[in-house]
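Support case: user asked for a sample of complex input and structure output to validate their parser. Sending the pair below.
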Amino acid sequence: MSAVSETREQALAGYNFAYLDEQTKRMIRRAILKAVAIPGYQVPFASREMPMPYGWGTGGVQVTAAVLGPDDVLKVIDQGADDTTNAVSIRQFFERTAGVATTTRTAEATVIQTRHRIPEATLRAGQVLVFQVPIPEPLRFLEPRETETRRLHALAEYGLMHVKLYEDIARHGHIATTYAYPVEVSGRYVMDPSPTPKFDNPKMDDCAALQLFGAGRERRIYAVPPHTRVRSLDFADHPFEVQRFDRPCALCGAADSYLDEVVLDDRGRRLFVCSDTDHCATRRAEGHVGPGEEEAAP
Amino acid sequence: MYVAVKGGEAAIANAHRLLAHERRGDPSVPELGLDQIGEQMSLLVARVMTEGSLYDPGLAALAIKQARGDVVEAVFLLRACRTTLPRFGAAEPIDTGAMRVRRRVSAIFKDLPGGQVLGPTFDYTHRLLDFTLAAGLPPPPPAEAPVETPVETLANGARMPRVASLLGEEGLIESGGTDDPDAPVPDLTREPVSYPADRALRLQALARGDEGFVLALGYSTQRGFGRTHPFAGEIRHGEVALEFTPEELGFPVPLGRVAVTECEMVNQFHGSAERPPQFTRGYGLAFGQSERKAMAMALVDRALRAEELGEETSAPAQDQEFVLSHCDSLQATGFVEHLKLPHHVDFQAELVLLRRLRAEHAARYAAREAATGAASDDAAEPFQEAAE
């Protein structure tokens, strides 16, 4: 290690465990406790300015910093993968400021910070899943005013959302929301699950792990406690359904995982592989083999 | 065969090393010193301190150097430092009436107690590139003040009365806020904003707000989107003493001096059955010499008081949720630039749906073609019969 980077390490060593001071952590923990007590309700919190930009996971980072202990094992994913640049950056941040053990294995992690995906492997009790949330308000694009949306939540007045979903069906024949698909939590609050594909929505229901959501720029924290009913909004004649892929993962052959489409060249060659890199690697280690490259979508 | 890309960690580290290299530029050119930035880029330092909400010219200069001159990035660096600093209390309100004035102009009186002091200003310069500056020639020395300055002719020592208080003596302008001076100071960096936000909080947000955004909003009120009929009552810039009252002492002790720019706008008058008509006010304050920011802030402050003053609210500058949620350059830049982050999972979800919708559309179209083809055959027959 060079002298310069040693100095940088020492500079970071001057910060409290997991960067945030204990007062701030206490404030965030209080918000988390309130969020857990009122599932799906967006709790305002005094989000701090973090050393990474707003919109890049400052909410998730603050929640993780507040719940992280020295014995925790941290996993950070972005788009389901541990090796995407922002996941690497956030993992390094906690390696430096908290010195906690990190892992890419979903099963080994006690705290998993995620952006845009829920791991394929079923989460267990004792694990905490921390979501990075850009826009916490599910009604925001229907009603831009916070004063108004808070009133709608207070009155459980979700007609707007149902009208929006209905209009989708009228226009396209389907509900055209494919990610950040709204859910009703514990029969009360309508909640934005963060921009995960709706493929992941069923995993939120009755999940054994604690799910925490942090929106730094918008200064909101919300939660889904373990084993809470999470229902994706739908209609009796248009029941909720998830994306299906008409082929398995090219690498591990998984037929039930969410796939990334990788463009191989400019002549239409494509490859579909698991977005959850740990899931894919684990399956391959177990001996599963996919069909490999094939001609993709017509 | 496709192999998932690894090595993000090394790529990030290398990108940062390259960035540091680019920041330095050609090593044969002498490196910028923080003192050079502080002395010769003082308006930039003022802006970074204002939007960074931290009065520290040295740290601001460092942030500017580290950010390669990018204002928003420099503000970001300063804010990220500020967020870790302990808060040990709130200072006494600064007394801008006791300011050591370097510049003070009023547009509403030809002359006034204390006089018009132009000071260092770009106003009335002809914007012609100065090639002697490129050649590095030293500027002529500044003019010496006459022995008896207008400031010293004032009755009450060195105080330079604020224009608003001159108007206030006659009751022509509303008093400058009736808030309890001992009330706790709101801090939007420590408490989430809830709407409606009071004026102190709004002013705080505007002071931190992006100069360009606040400028454009202020400008929009001049063009009729929330018109307030403003007059620049006074703009003053100079140093004020900063005092703090430690609990154990019970009296204020000086902490030092800070340079600020203050703008008082005098706006269209109001009255009611109970209150005689009087001018209303808009207020702006920024660190260092930041006139554009202070003036724009005062315009927007006044526009945001529309509801309180019983005016119709329809323009963006009058809408506090719109203004306060969008004026912060860090929040804006973070969210705009986060679009650079991978979104392929969500994009895939959209692709899946779009392909399905297109397939269904093609099927429907084909079915309709077939149906109308058959129908037109049916329709053609009677016509043919009639022709026969």
